[in-house]
Specification:
Adenylate cyclase, Adenylate_cyclase_1_N, 29 helices, alpha/beta
Length: 949
């Protein structure tokens, strides 16, 4: 190329109109060549659409497509249809005839430009036409609305012709100051990408009709003086104002635009990474040069001014690739460059392998072959890329690593650039936060999360035939793993093939297959169950349950959802996967018939049939999580974690429980559903419920504190009584599962519990009686005592409660007389008497205390003697007995005193009638259960001493 072909107009040296005309001709010639390339890739009907667009915006004719009304703005600057356009129009409507417009008609359509992939290396059969309609800024709102309706009508007509067209109305004056039609923002990140959009327009737009961009005539070295330069061109009449339209200059790109562009491309890249890689890398290359950005539109203009008009090298996609190549080579990042090359090759989608007779020798193929030769790709690599539609798990997993790595690199670059440039506004901070969470949700690995392999890499990962096998884990003796293989393999062939995927648990593997569409309705699945009880029937139902709970494809996540912590949306609980809970009965050929059908306590041996849980969760961020619960407490562990993961009541997830094991599957699933439903109801009441469940001979209590649900395991009934007798910080209702404690008195009276009262329940089983007390916070006290009469059983207790209430009232502050400290004592008798199963609870009146019948008063005072040690003082009929005086003989002396005072010859129990714990509690109001516990210990010691006296 000779130096004389370069045009360098200079304001100081004067500008030749011929030079400007020559420049305009170069741009138009390049645009015409690109348009010719675009026509090559279109069908005749699509070609007709493209060729007729200027005519349709030039005239308003009722017989032509797009007609709205006679008042719709029409007339394209300096446009007259040629014979070919008129012939095309007449083929559409034979009666149409074009009449040249009158002298100086209005021309409100200033320019028509084609954007998008048409005329580029990446043009494909499905490429759409993005058309900018630049109109007169003086059009009224009604006229713009008319024009918009015309555009919508033409889009429908183009679709009927097999072309996808989109029209964007552009007011040049508004565009220059960053305002534009909202539709024009549909393919970028809002209005924050003004200059990057303009950069893309200047280097890719194909002129169809009307005025030409003034930007064409301004040399790159004058870009910073764009306003002054264009003013001179117009004021000195080097060009006429009606010949050009001004969309602005490229002298400066604000750093916030790179953030906006990166955000948008990363957002799109999560679903279609190949389409975004090139634009992300270009944005990174631009941003790395900020503030002296050498954008591609400026390189493009430089080349035209220098008459380096190589149509291939000025192809928009080739220019983008060259810019990225230059950037990555300078950084020494060959792996990223290879990914960019693969992205470009797959974007172009022109296979270079296969039978020669099936190839076309179009310009796109020839250009792509030239690029591939530069890259030194061999036939094997090309064949792999050309078989992308057949890619399956292994290849997709490898490619995913590269793509996810690139997206994460871009995100880190973007956040670092934003900090360095201090270009993070409150809006972009929010967008960066949302985007970071989108990337995390889509690609971050974490325990239990099912990895999504195929974000737009291959069209279909489904396999025709697979083999699923349970095999010993050679690295962990005694453990097993599940493996998935290609093809239908026999048991002895498994050792010679490498599995596609292996997992410790079956559901982890099946969920991975479902999430990634590795198994679909046409996949044939061979099964080798190993030591499990898995059947083909169960396997089929497990897959169906996954499909019903996690419906694919998953929808887009709203930004507001991502700004909140993830919460469960769908939960699938699968019980006893691959396990027959009654297998040992089948092995022993035992046929069980029983009336005890509770799945947690089955038959006379009270066998637990609920053995394992696999929980599959789809959360609000579209993450799929798998969790396994096994071991002796699988049910309670699962319930605890499930309940703690529940969000607020208004956004509760759908919970499905399924069981497909060989025995009693439906009953097992129904039993677990009942437990979950009850637990959720108790949690919603927010009353710190305790939920008592019996599994075999063990007892489990779920402590239902919202967000802090925990469970306690109690091995036997004495441990249960100890737990129920613990002090509580507040009233805590105790809810019994209907199948729990069905042969115990507790199952009858525990539902009677209520706050702020003391409830006494007793059952006579001579020669003893059982006393139960539920105190004001629902703690349980139990004592078995010798029985003589109902009065002798209850009156001492009633006296003790009266003394307790008297002390509480006495300690009441004088300035708060309305505070209630009095607790009503209610009495209930459990019937029938004896050791059989209790049937009823009958409320009784408090026992009558006859004034004329004297009673022996025994008062106890307990104080802290030293840390961890207490001292006891007893008052027997007014006489003091202290361990300071009597030491370990205290109870023996008191016992003899009591016996000496009695007139009756028979021995009977002694009761503590009053107890003071202020020496331990201080000013605190002690819970009744604490007083009853001390009372029982003192009485035991005292009565034992009486027995020995």
């Amino acid at each position: 190329m000779t130096r004389s072909s370069e045009i360098r107009p200079d304001l100081d040296e004067g500008i030749d109109r011929k030079v400007l005309a020559q420049l305009r001709s170069r741009f138009l010639a390049l645009s015409e060549s690109r348009l010719a390339r675009a026509y090559e890739g279109l069908s005749p009907r699509q070609q007709s659409v493209l060729s007729l667009l200027p005519l349709f915006f030039h005239v308003n004719h009722p017989l032509l497509p797009g007609y709205v009304s006679g008042s719709t703005p029409a007339g394209v600057s300096h446009y007259e249809p040629d014979a070919q356009a008129l012939a095309e129009a007449q083929r559409l409507t034979r009666s149409f005839s074009y009449k040249p417009r009158r002298v100086n008609p209005p021309q409100p359509i200033h320019g028509i430009f084609l954007m998008g992939s048409l005329g580029t290396l990446a043009q494909a059969d499905q490429s759409d036409m993005d058309v900018w309609i630049c109109h007169d800024p003086l059009l009224s709102a009604d006229e713009i609305q008319e024009l918009r309706r015309k555009c919508q009508s033409l889009e429908s007509w183009a679709a009927s012709m097999g072309a996808e067209a989109h029209f964007f109305l552009v007011d040049p004056e508004r565009f220059v100051v960053g305002e534009r039609d909202a539709q024009l923002s549909g393919e970028d990140c809002g209005t924050t990408q003004h200059y990057l959009l303009l950069d893309e327009f200047y280097r890719t737009a194909i002129w169809l009709a009307g005025r030409t961009p003034m930007w064409w005539l301004v040399p790159v070295y004058e870009e910073t003086r764009y306003a002054e330069y264009t003013h001179t061109l117009l004021s000195k009449r080097f060009i006429r104002a009606d010949e050009v339209l001004d969309l602005g200059n490229m002298s400066h790109i604000p750093p916030g635009e790179f953030i906006g562009a990166g955000l948008w491309q990363l957002f799109k890249g999560i679903e279609s990474p190949y389409k975004s890689v090139l634009k992300l890398l270009l944005t990174e290359a631009y941003a790395s040069e900020h503030p002296q950005v050498q954008c591609l539109s400026m390189r493009f203009k430089n080349a035209v001014f220098a008459k380096r008009v190589d149509l291939d090298e000025l192809d928009p996609y080739v220019m983008v690739y060259r810019r990225i190549e230059e950037y990555l080579l300078a950084r020494g990042e060959p792996e990223r460059l290879e990914l960019a090359r693969r992205s470009l090759y797959l974007k172009v989608n022109k296979k270079l392998t296969g039978a020669t007779r099936h190839r076309s020798n179009g310009w796109q193929r020839l250009l792509l072959e030239r690029l591939v030769n530069e890259w030194n790709w061999d036939d094997r690599q090309l064949a792999l890329l050309d078989s992308r539609s057949q890619w399956k798990v292994r290849q997709v997993a490898s490619e995913r690593r590269a793509l996810v790595g690139e997206l994460n690199l871009s995100y880190r670059f973007l956040t670092q650039f934003a900090r360095a440039q201090k270009a993070v506004s409150s809006i972009s901070k929010r967008d960066l936060n949302v985007l970071g969470r989108r990337l995390y949700a889509a690609f971050e690995r974490k325990a239990g999360k099912v990895e999504f392999l195929n974000p737009g890499i291959a069209p279909d990962l489904a396999e025709d035939t697979l083999t699923l096998a349970q095999l010993p884990n050679k690295r962990e003796p005694g453990r097993y793993q599940w493996c998935l293989y290609n093809g239908n393999l026999s048991a002895h062939e498994l050792e010679t093939f490498a599995p596609i995927k292996r997992s410790r648990e079956l559901l982890e593997l099946l969920t991975w297959c479902h999430r990634n569409n590795v198994i679909d309705s046409s996949t044939r699945l061979a099964l080798h169950p190993g030591i499990s009880d898995l059947t083909e029937f169960e396997l089929f139902n497990l897959q169906s349950a996954l499909q019903q709970s996690i419906v694919l494809p998953l929808g887009m996540i709203d930004e507001d959802v991502l700004l909140s912590p993830s919460v469960p949306h769908e939960i699938l609980l699968l019980v006893n996967v691959g396990i027959d809970p009654l297998r040992h009965h089948k092995d022993l050929n035992i046929l069980m018939t029983t009336e005890r059908t509770d799945s947690l306590s089955y038959a006379g041996v009270r066998e637990n049939l609920v053995l394992t849980f696999d929980q599959i969760t789809l959360n609000s961020w579209n993450e799929v999580l798998v969790n396994r619960f096994d071991g002796p407490h699988a049910l309670l562990d699962c319930l605890t974690e499930l309940l703690n993961g529940l969000p607020e009541k208004s956004a509760r997830p759908v919970i499905r429980v399924r069981c497909f094991c060989h025995n009693r599957a439906q009953a097992i699933a129904q039993r677990v559903e009942e437990l979950i439903g009850t637990a959720q109801l108790l949690l919603d009441r927010r009353l710190n419920h305790r939920y008592l469940i019996q599994v075999e001979q063990r007892y489990h209590v779920l402590e239902m504190i919202p967000g802090q649900v925990s469970h306690v395991t109690l091995e036997h009934v004495p441990a249960l009584f100890d737990y129920l007798g613990e002090e509580l910080s507040a009233y805590s209702p105790l809810h019994l599962d209907p199948q729990a404690l069905d042969d115990s008195d507790l199952s009858l009276f525990i539902p009677y519990g209520q706050p702020e009262c003391i409830q006494v329940f007793y059952r006579i089983n001579e020669p003893n009686a059982d006393l139960y007390v539920l105190d004001e916070r629902n703690a349980l006290w139990h004592q078995q005592v010798p029985y003589h009469t109902e009065s002798s059983l209850l009156v001492p207790l009633q006296r003790f409660f009266q003394s307790l209430m008297y002390r509480r009232v006495a300690l009441l502050p004088m300035d708060n007389p309305l505070e209630s400290t009095s607790l009503e004592a209610l009495y209930y008798r459990i019937t029938p008497d004896g050791s059989g199963r209790a049937r009823r609870v009958e409320q009784r009146s408090p026992p009558a205390m006859l004034i004329e019948k004297p009673f022996f008063d025994v008062q106890a005072i307990i104080e802290e003697a030293s840390p961890g040690q207490v001292s006891v003082t007893l008052y027997c009929d007014g006489m003091e007995f202290s361990d300071l005086e009597f030491g370990d003989q205290l109870f023996s002396f008191v016992a003899r005193r009591i016996l000496d005072q009695r007139r009756e010859p028979q021995r009977y129990r002694c009761y503590i009638t009053d107890l003071d714990l202020s020496g331990i509690l201080g000013d605190a109001r002690g819970q009744t259960i604490l007083f009853l516990r001390y009372k029982a210990e003192l009485e035991q010691s005292l009565n034992a001493a009486m027995d020995e006296a």
